[in-house]
Amino acid sequence: MKHVSILVLETAVIEAIADPRYLFSAVNQFLVAAGKEPLFEVQLVGFKKEVRLENSTYSVYADVLLEEISQTDLIIIPALSGDMKMAIQQNAAFIPWINDQHRKGAEVASLCIGAFLFASTGLLNGKKCSTHWSRFNEFRVMFPEVEIVDGSIITEEKGLYSSGGANSYWNLLVYLVEKYTDRATAILAAKYFAVEIDRDSQAAFMLFNGQRTHEDEEVKKAQDYIETNYIERLTVDQLADRFAIGRRSFERRFKKATNNTVVEYMQRVKMEAAKRSFETSRKNISEVMFDVGYTDTKAFRTIFKKITGLTPIEYRNKYNKQALMA
Questions:
Q1: What's this model's pTM, rounded to 2 decimal places?
Q2: Counting Cβ atoms within 10 Å, is residue 57 exposed (0-12), middle (13-18) or buried (19+)?
């Protein structure tokens, strides 16, 4: 029997508590129906018995308190909401408990923005982690010693797991089911909960918002210029000259400030504009390509797929019904 501890955190997203409990309980039912023993003992574990969530709209009652758990096999850290620094402070009592349980052999999985509390334990230092794409920049600033993986749905390193944004946590939950049971049970769970099994990227859902929390004013001006003039075929030399900075220094400062090279930043800005065009217009691939400053079809398609995980046609068909009907 595997003991699963789902943490009842302050400011948690209630679905990220309820859904894991539902899934592991359902898997037990699948196993029993197949003539097998149930595998999971699932408990909601809290620092206190009752936590009120979403402006006191809901109350969640813990099955057990932290001190009542001597040992567990899997800890689920649910998604959080609101200000992350405050959320970490409110849930600080869980951090030493998570570390203690991990030392005893427990695996740990964070769902979506629960990665912030996970990273606060120090367990992810020097390791890879995923979280909601909208929080990447904030996460990097708060936890520079953790490698945030852009676009990844699931990360796993030595029994430490994380998932991408929002409903992506279902993919991690199904992944854990397969790890603890077998492929057939995971497929059954995926079908039951209508989860696209083995989806490995949240790239198609990401919106690119350039990192602007830095203090390098010249780099901010360069970002503004790139975003205003994305139609042009800008070069790194042109930008460095424009802002009177040596090329090597410009590239170094830009990378440090934005976590993107200059070329990567220009590509992301162009692809973001292309995505918006595919979503809202009936323009064909070539028209959109020219609109964002590309003349090489192969290069455009290659970079678009690298950033979004989809080809331009796949992206347009996924997000623009009018274009699909045209």
A1: 0.70
A2: exposed
CATH code of the domain occupying 2-203: 3.40.50.880
Where on the phi/psi map is residue 155: left (φ > 0), alpha (ψ -120 to 50), or beta?
A: beta
Own/partner pairs, 53-57, CB within 8 angstroms, 24+ separation: 53/11, 53/12, 53/13, 53/14, 54/14, 54/81
Average pLDDT value for residue range 273-287: 88
Spell out the domain ranges in the chain: 2-203, 217-325
Per 3-state DSSP, the chain is made up of helix, strand and coil in percentages (nearest 5) of 50, 15, 35
Q: What is the CATH number of domain 217-325?
A: 1.10.10.60
Q: Which value, in Å, is the radius of gyration of the alpha carbons in the chain? A: 23
pLDDT in tens, 178-200: 999 988 898 899 899 988 776 65
Beta carbons within 10 angstroms of residue 207's beta carbon: 9
Residue 211 has pLDDT above 80, yes or no: no
Query: How many whole angstroms separate alpha carbon 295 and alpha carbon 232?
Result: 11
Would you place residue 272 in the very low, low, confident or very high pLDDT band (cuts 50, 70, 90)?
confident
As beta bridge partners, residue 154 has 163
The pLDDT of residue 200 is 59
Q: How far apart are CA 297 and CA 286, in angstroms?
A: 7
